[in-house]
């Protein structure tokens, strides 16, 4: 009889312990989700702060920020150059099948119907 009592008591303890662990994991998941949301919000605010700083002070930045502001300006220039290059390619595209000039964004050649966008 004692064996069964011990067994049921032990089983009950294991069961409570397992339930506690599930609860702990559920709490950890909730906490992790809140950490992730707060981290995203923090990153958005830091991004906004950086943009505002750049817009206001890029022309005469604090010496500590000068390198970062210069890198941002360089990247903006690079992006504009790449965008102009992509626009130019799109504006001067020709159908590979018939050689006719095609309009930017066209899925098919208006002349021969060749599929242009994969
Ligand atoms: Zn064509």
Concise overview:
With 118 residues, this protein is an all-alpha fold. It has one domain (2-91).
Question: How would you explain this protein's 3D organization?
Answer:
This protein is mostly helical. The chain has one domain. Helix content is 69%, strand content 0%. The protein has 2 helices and no strands. The radius of gyration is 31 Å and the shape is flat. The termini are far apart. The model has no long low-confidence stretch (mean pLDDT 89). Bound molecules: zinc ion. Residues 95, 97-98, 100, 109, 111-112, 114 line the site of zinc ion (ZN).
Mean pLDDT figure: 89
End-to-end separation in angstroms reads 76 Å
Strand proportion: under 5%
What's the β-strand tally?
A: 0
Number of domains: 1
The parts where pLDDT drops under 50 for at least 5 residues are none
What portion of residues is helical? 55-70%
Order of helices and strands: HH
């Amino acid at each position: 009889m004692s064996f069964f009592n011990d067994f049921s008591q032990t089983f009950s303890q294991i069961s409570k312990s397992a339930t506690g662990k599930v609860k702990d994991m559920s709490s950890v998941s909730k906490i992790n989700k809140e950490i992730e949301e707060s981290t995203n919000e923090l990153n958005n605010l830091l991004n906004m702060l950086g943009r505002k700083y750049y817009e206001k002070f890029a022309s005469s930045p604090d010496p500590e920020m000068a390198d970062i502001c210069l890198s941002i300006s360089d990247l903006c220039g690079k992006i504009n150059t790449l965008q102009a290059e992509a626009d130019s390619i799109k504006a001067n595209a020709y159908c590979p099948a018939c050689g006719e000039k095609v309009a930017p964004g066209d899925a098919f050649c208006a002349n021969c119907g060749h599929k242009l966008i994969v």
